[in-house]
Amino acid sequence: DLSGTRSSLSILRSLHSVTVRLSTMQGLAPSSKLSLTVVVVGLLLGMAGAAHGLTRVVSSSPDEPCMNMTLYYHDILYNGNNTANATTAAATKPTALATTYWKNSTYFGALMVFNDPMTVGKALPLAGEEPAARAQGFYFYDKQESLTSWFGFSIVFNSTAHKGTLNLVGADLMGDATRDFSVVGGTGDFFMARGVTTIRTDAIEGLYYFRLQMDIKLYECYL
Q1: What integer pLDDT is reported at residue 127 of this predicted model?
Q2: Within 10 A of 209 (CB to CB), how many other CB atoms are there?
Q3: Dihedral sign (CA 188, 157, 213, 146)
Q4: 3.90.870.10, 3.40.50.300, 2.40.480.10, 1.10.510.10: which CATH number matches 67-222?
Q5: Does residue 221 sit in helix, strand or coil?
Q6: What is the DSSP code (8-state) at residue 126?
Q7: Which of 21, 80, 87, 138 is most enclosed, with most CB atoms within 10 A?
Q8: Residue 45 in 3-state DSSP?
Q9: CA–CA distance, 134 with 115 (Å, rounded to integer)
C-alpha cells in the first residue's frame, strides 16, 4: 500500500544518508567505525520492522524464547517404487570418491532434494490432509568417516495457525543425540526471525524413511 511504500522509501533514504556519513569518517579508529556500523544496522533493522507495523522483541535468556514450537519432519526417500509417496530424491549421481565411501554407508557427496511434510504430532498426514508445514530444500552427505549431512531449507507454513516461512541451515551430526540448526530469517508471521532449532532423530525405518523432532526456539521476533 501507499504507506508501506513511503516507509520503504524513508528507510532507503536513511540508508543512503548513513552510507554517505560513514564514507566521510576519516578520523575515527577502525574499531569505532565498526561499532558505529553495527549500531546503524541495528537501527535500520528496527526501522524495517516498524515499516511493517511490527515491534522487535529480543529475548534476554536462552530459556525464554519469544516464540517456540515443536514439529516433526518426515523424510521419505524415493526407492524406485514409491513414486506416489516419496518426498525426497537424490539429485546427483555418486562421484568416484562417493562410490569409494558408499560401501561403509556414509554416502559422501550425495545430494538430496526434499519437499517433506512437517506435522505437530508424530503421525504422517492422512490422505488428503494438509500438513502443518512443508520443509523444502536439500541436504548432502559431507563426511567420509561417519554419517553426517548439511541442511539448508525453508519451513513453509500455509495454515490457519501460521503463514510465512522460517529459513534454517546447519550440520546434522547424526551420531549426536541432539543437534542444532540456525534459524537465519523468516517471512510472514516469522518476519526477520532468528533463533535455534534443536533436532533429535525420532524414528528410522530402513534406508528410506526417517523422522526428526524439531524444537524451534526464536530469540528475535517481530510481533
Answers
A1: 83
A2: 19
A3: negative
A4: 2.40.480.10
A5: strand
A6: P
A7: 87
A8: helix
A9: 6
Cell of 178: 541432539
Name residues whose C-beta falls within 8 Å of residue 103's C-beta, 6 or more positions apart in sequence.
none
Helices and strands of the chain, counted as H and E runs = 3, 10
**Cα dihedral 116, 121, 123, 128 in deg (nearest 10):** -70
Please check whether residue 172 is in contact with residue 151, taking contact to mean a CB–CB distance below 8 angstroms: yes
Q: Which percentage of the chain shows pLDDT scores above 90? A: 58
Over residues 164-181, the mean pLDDT reads 97
Cα atoms in the Cβ-side hemisphere of radius 13 Å centred on 221: 16
For residues 204 and 61, the answer to whether their CB atoms sit within 8 Å is: no
Which residue matches cell numbers 530459556? 63
List the beta strands (DSSP E) in the chain: 56-58, 67-76, 88-90, 111-119, 133-141, 148-158, 163-173, 179-188, 194-205, 209-222
Q: Which residue type sits at 132?
A: A
Beta bridge partners of 194: 220
Angle at 162 between CA 161 and CA 163, to 5 degrees: 140
